[in-house]
Design a protein that fits this description.
This protein is globular. α12 (314-326) packs parallel to α13 (347-354). It has an eight-stranded mixed β-sheet with strand order 4-3-2-5-1-6-7-8, sandwiched between helices. It has a seven-stranded mixed β-sheet with strand order 16-15-14-17-13-12-18, with helices on both faces. 38% of the residues lie in helices and 19% in strands. It is of the alpha/beta class and 432 residues long.
Length: 432
């Protein structure tokens, strides 16, 4: 199987629905020699923040000299982004080889995510990774990543209302699903969240005789401001010093606390994981499509910017809105939001956060079958902001090119759209 065939095989699985059973996955992995059992894991779930925490933990471990695998989702431009070792994405031949071997042994047809997870386990095991940072897809209890027998640490970054049709309509119900990754006798690091969600996680930890570490209490990070020139967020650390992380958003204070709690717990296994190394990793952090600011040089002499963010649920949209309001770009009257959303998301709550920030919008849609039609999105924007000037452009690439004509072009609402933006703008823009 070559890379093109492997990609086609994976993408064709998007129509395959999960039966919420590990039976087919377990059978395939057994035929592959159970590669997942040869690895040590940091298993991460959460409504928001899990991607950033996963990248930061993997970066610190790699810098401490540990060969570290990282499995994340979604990808933005290339499916190989989902599987990496020490910051290097799986190569196209390796990806094709792993996918082909999984397909060759499957008994029942695996879903898109199940196939990728099995390929990742195989790749990490055959490359003898010392640790794997494993990001759950949706929820935790029934997520295929939870097939692992044990983890060094389970991490729950946050709990909010997302994927309610699958996980439940309350914060408590969603917390229970995410707490399903807590292992018997294990350790769970918990990020900042509502008391009702924390109570559910605490009860699950007690039930499993697991030790719970509440990161905001263990490591008190506080937001200290932004350095817009450098694209950094300043944080007051638990040692009293002011440090920077190469990302933008007040919520990185909570993420930093979670990362520090994880690394402190691992220090007995990885002595090189010092606080100073963690701070160094903060400055080397790169997680695209999280309030990513890029210079717009499509026009000679242009001083515009493009802001790309995958904000697709109410909590992520609120974080984007908070950062944008504090940014130097909010005051520019020539600003536009290019937006697409998925119809199965709580997009009205997302729009309630984003619509007040702009007067001009370009409503579009991605190629996903789940995408809300652009005209329906435009009507929803108008309902939130009756004075808005909304252009309907169903073709995402055309919509993005239209957005580039403004001094400040923000792209949000969907990781699919964010990925399209980064691919579309790749040769036209430069990192700030």
């Amino acid at each position: 199987m070559n890379f093109s065939a492997a990609c086609a095989e994976v993408m064709n699985r998007q129509a395959v629905r999960t039966c919420h059973s590990f039976e087919s996955v377990r059978a395939a992995l057994e035929r592959l020699g159970n590669p997942q059992n040869r690895l040590k894991y940091i298993h991460i779930t959460g409504t928001n923040g899990k991607g950033s925490v996963a990248h930061l933990c993997a970066l610190a471990l790699a810098r401490a000299g540990i060969k570290t695998g990282l499995f994340v989702s979604p990808h933005l431009a290339d499916v190989c982004e989902r599987i990496s070792i020490n910051g290097l994405n799986v190569s196209e031949p390796e990806f094709a080889g792993c996918v082909g071997r999984v397909v060759a042994v499957e008994a029942g047809k695996l879903t898109f995510f199940e196939l990728l997870a099995c390929a990742a386990f195989l790749h990490f095991a055959e490359n003898s990774c010392g640790f794997v940072v494993l990001e759950a897809g949706i929820g935790g209890r029934l997520d295929v990543t939870n097939i692992i027998g044990q983890s060094a640490i389970s991490v729950i970054t946050s709990v909010g209302l997302d994927h309610t049709e699958l996980l439940g309509g309350t914060v408590e119900a969603i917390a229970a699903e995410k707490a399903g990754i807590i292992k018997s006798g294990g350790v769970c690091v918990c990020g900042a969240m509502e008391p009702s969600a924390l109570a559910v996680i605490e009860a699950e930890a007690v039930k499993n005789n697991a030790r719970l570490i509440y990161a905001p209490q263990a490591f008190a990070f506080r937001f200290a401001g932004f350095d817009w020139e450098k694209g950094e967020t300043l944080l007051h650390g638990p040692d009293g010093s002011t440090r920077a992380i190469a990302a933008l958003g007040r919520h990185y204070a909570a993420n930093a606390a979670t990362v520090f709690a994880v690394l402190a717990e691992l220090r007995g296994m990885v002595p090189g994981l010092t606080p100073e190394l963690a701070y160094e990793s903060f400055l080397r952090f790169s997680c695209p499509a999280r309030f990513q600011v890029i210079r717009n040089e499509i026009k000679p002499g242009s001083a515009g910017v493009v802001i790309v963010d995958g904000a697709h649920n109410p909590q992520a949209a609120a974080a984007f809105a908070d950062t944008f309001r504090r940014s130097p770009y909010c005051g520019n009257q020539d600003r536009v939001l290019v937006i697409a959303v998925m119809r199965d998301k709580n997009y009205r709550a997302v729009l309630a956060e984003l619509a007040p920030l702009y007067k001009r919008f370009i409503a579009t849609r991605t190629s996903s079958e789940r995408a809300l039609p652009a005209d329906e999105l435009a009507a929803a924007i108008q309902a939130c902001n009756p004075a808005a000037d909304v252009v309907v452009e169903p073709d995402a690439k055309t919509a993005l090119r239209l957005g580039l004509g403004s001094a400040v072009c923000a792209v949000a609402g969907s990781f699919y759209l964010a990925g399209s933006a980064l691919s579309c703008f790749n040769r036209r823009l430069k990192a700030c």
